[in-house]
Amino acid sequence: MSVIAFKCPDIRVTVVDINQERIKAWNDTDLENLPIYEPGLKDIVATARGRNLFFSTDIDQAIDQADMIFISVNTPTKTYGKGKGQAADLKYIELCARNIARVAKDDKIVIEKSTLPVRTAQAIKNILDNTGNHVNFEILSNPEFLAEGTAINDLLNADRVLIGGDSTPGGEAAKQALSSIYENWLPKERILLTNVWSSELSKLVANAFLAQRISSINSISALCEKTDANVDEVAKAIGLDSRIGPKFLNASVGFGGSCFQKDILNLVYIAKSYGLEEVANYWDQVIKINDYQKQRFADTILSTLYNTVAGKKIVFYGWAFKKDTNDTRESAAIYVADALLEEQAEIVVYDPKVSEQQIYADLDRLNTRSEQENRRLLRVSKDPLDSVDDAHAIAVLTEWDEFKTLDWEKIYTKMLKPSFVFDGRRILDSNKLNGIGFKYYRIGES
Ligand code: UDX
């Protein structure tokens, strides 16, 4: 919404949320306090806020005044009832729809921005049509393809924008209205108009394909570790085939983030609900390999440290699910830590952007052990060098650039010998680290 406001000064954009703290932070005069860390976002908010970008908790007023309403609430995987662990939880979407229905006094275009199961638009339409004040609602699906850490650039230079809607005259007009907003900065050829179900499904499928690439290369990384092949060399060799392409082939400790797992689970659930077991199993395998990769990394640490990590200090460099974000949702680090804590390891975490509170919250949520136990076994450090005294091992969980330029000689002198480094992101210089004396292991190489 900030980017839309930034690029379209004539459009008034109001972002509303029931969470007062969050809105307060979005309105904070100190731009360092915005609730999301995202490169470039601060400048965009600084330009547009107060001009045509507003943040408010007055939801009803904003609905009343709007021509278009984007629903962008979260749709987490259900943790209860039917479809638990797989289906998307649509309660927040439904609450939004009911709120819009109650308040709207004139025609509105309602846009699904949240990632949703196929056919949700129909459910939203039913709620709006049956509980509303008999105004006309056009429902569009406009999935978001931005990736965190590069969000602003992804929006400003989007590969494509997808707009799904009905092919009735009203639906076509609504699609055009939304398209004209994006046309302020994107060429028209990149704006795809589809039916609403294609649009909804495409979002899930795009994420499933991306995640599948990572699981594919990660499965090969396990094979590389058993042979003398090097996963980067394999990735490069196959990526040069223009049909395969080079992107998203970085072997890692496993993908994280709020989207990939959730969307695949959702796809699996939808396939199952239509009786397509083979399709469901096929996509489920992408998640299974991802879980395997995280477990494998933890197992490698354990077996390399002579099959016991009890009481041994292991330093985690990175907790975020990838660099340049403070987002930790589904981060591989959480699961690797959990596995090592089960072995009574003592973990110290350093991440340049993630707060201590967040790290503990992520662990506590797993319910593997008590909160006290998590705090006893895991500590959070604010300095990458202070944390390594007497450590047996360092594990790189997030590919933050700063890890590459740390003073590795100094780190080596502080650690116990032999000093192990487990690089789950393949970002460190193996010649340099081996030269210093480290026992350096990285994913995808023997
Ligand atoms: C993803 C999609 O890229 C985006 O289009 C969609 O809108 C939301 O989901 P995001 O979750 O922000 O975006 O991050 P992304 O860059 O896709 O990375 C996801 C995870 O995969 C991260 O944990 C990342 O470290 C990992 N990854 C990515 C790899 O392990 N290897 C790769 O080659 C690429």
Automatic annotation (TrEMBL):
Recorded superkingdom: Bacteria
Catalyzed chemical reaction(s): UDP-alpha-D-glucose + 2 NAD(+) + H2O = UDP-alpha-D-glucuronate + 2 NADH + 3 H(+)
GO molecular function ontology, one term from the record: UDP-glucose 6-dehydrogenase activity
Binding site for NAD(+): 17, 22, 73-77, 114-115, 148, 259-262, 329
EC number: 1.1.1.22
One GO-annotated biological process of the protein: glycosaminoglycan biosynthetic process
Alphabetic keyword roster: NAD, Oxidoreductase
Pfam families hit by this protein: UDPG_MGDP_dh, UDPG_MGDP_dh_C, UDPG_MGDP_dh_N
Top-rank EC class of the record's enzyme: oxidoreductase
Pathway named in the protein's UniProt entry: Nucleotide-sugar biosynthesis; UDP-alpha-D-glucuronate biosynthesis; UDP-alpha-D-glucuronate from UDP-alpha-D-glucose: step 1/1
Transmembrane segments: none
Domain UDP-glucose/GDP-mannose dehydrogenase C-terminal, residue spans: 315-430
Active site: C259
Role: Catalyzes the conversion of UDP-glucose into UDP-glucuronate, one of the precursors of teichuronic acid.
PANTHER family: UDP-GLUCOSE 6-DEHYDROGENASE, UDP-GLUCOSE DEHYDROGENASE/UDP-MANNAC DEHYDROGENASE
Family listed: Belongs to the UDP-glucose/GDP-mannose dehydrogenase family.
Name recorded for this polypeptide: UDP-glucose 6-dehydrogenase
